[in-house]
Amino acid sequence: MEIWTRCVDFILISGMSILGLIIFFLIKSRTQQSKKLLIAFFASAIFFLLYYYGYVHKIRFIGAIALFFGNGQGYLLGPFLLFYLKSLILPKEKIFPSLFYHLIPFFLDFVFLSVPLSMRLGLRYFSNYISHYDKISDYLNLIENAYFFVYILLTYKLLRKVKASLKNHYSHIDEGNLTWFEFLLIGIAIIITADSLFSIYELYYPIVPWNIGTIIAFMFVILYVYLGYKGIFQSRILLPEFLNEVTLENHVISNDKQIKNQEHGRQLDGLSQDEIEELKIKLDNLLNKKKLFLNDSLSLTDLADAIGIGNKKLSELLNQHLNISFYNLINDYRIEEVKHRMNSEENDKLTLLGIAFESGFQSKASFNRVFKSKTGMSPSMYKYSILKERNPPSTID
């Protein structure tokens, strides 16, 4: 048992220390509103771990402090996840006033549960009040988890729309890559599911002598340490105004066709089929002949200006009439350019990365990822297949 206690101590103390460092670096970094939300997010996680540290060592005072500041995590972190994502896109005056209403369940939980629970643990007050709580604590935990899970779903749905909007406007999305945040959502969803299963278990079976919630604490430590630091380097995502307003204000709408109509306003409805075909020809000319895709910072707005139309019209032309996103369109051309240059013996002295940069890619990571998704093989494997075709192995009669 002593070995188990030392192991728990090591994990909990290490987790709290690392989270403290993450908070320190967030404070030292630029004070964006999104960073402030992350600071609150990780600070509440420290109190969550602190509670289990106090439980393991039977230190009532530490447990009382942790309960006071860290109880009701689901009611707090759920809205924080959603508004963190919003804060990466919209200015604070458009999102923070509404955050208060989403935190009302947390404030109620704080007044009626966090305060009495911490005072009972630290000062032995509210004993009769809390005795009723003990009988329904697992049910309350399931309600809190359900609330948290709803916000994870809302955040995930918004995340998918943000990523789709990025692909409709930029040819490179590495700076706005929110894959780490997607993993964070999935990880938290798994942990909440596990915690709910533990609560259901305790409703029907004898309570485990050691606090089963310690497993949840361990899972949070692993998740936060592995993915949490990514938030330090996440910058704001710059979406065009016509995209971010619809993406955020209508993220709960489920009808994709309705969303597309709202996003683009049916800008091309007034044009004839011949006029639309003329726009397609202009687009093809700019990409095939003038090769605008070689510009590694090319955006939807840049291409729209070159054609002589607004970015709303170009976005609708791509999505509705060509059934492709701007991101995929430009990267299709870039991959074809890379393949063409690989096949040319004139470029044999160039490295694969050199060819990638000359074809419009900004980084090795994005080049490798896009190339493999488009061709099904890595750039080096593709190059090897070309060299093998040029120099087939000789056969001996």
Automatic annotation (TrEMBL):
List the keywords (alphabetical): DNA-binding, Membrane, Transcription, Transcription regulation, Transmembrane, Transmembrane helix
A single Gene Ontology MF term assigned here is: DNA-binding transcription factor activity
Question: Which residue ranges traverse the bilayer?
Answer: 6-25, 37-55, 61-84, 96-119, 139-159, 180-201, 207-227
Record domain HTH araC/xylS-type: where: 277-385
InterPro entries, per database record: Homeodomain-like_sf (IPR009057), HTH_AraC (IPR018060), HTH_AraC-typ_CS (IPR018062)
Q: What Pfam families does the entry give?
A: HTH_18 (PF12833)
Q: Which PANTHER family match?
A: ARAC-FAMILY TRANSCRIPTIONAL REGULATOR
What's the protein name? Helix-turn-helix protein
Organism name: Gelidibacter algens
